[in-house]
Request: fold
Amino acid sequence: MKTPETPTKPLLEPGEVIYAPGWDYCYQVVSGPFCRINFVQWQGRLASTPSDPQLYISYLIRALGSKNVSRVIIKSTNFQAGFR
Reply:
């Protein structure tokens, strides 16, 4: 049984090659899915909160043959981050 804290299978896996209309190159996924975190002081305590919008996940990608890494943010209906 899946619980809200358990992520489903990621849409993309490291090593997969992706392309979208309008891109100049094919890109290789070089990370698993992640969500950026903001740390804030709240009522004297350090708290963390996701900085990406809900239902969006980030991946690190690089153009095939390149060493430069970029971040892409993808809207997902299949992934639920495990924040409490």
User: Anything to note?
Assistant: Residues 17 and 28 are 4 Å apart (CA to CA). The chain has no helices and six strands.
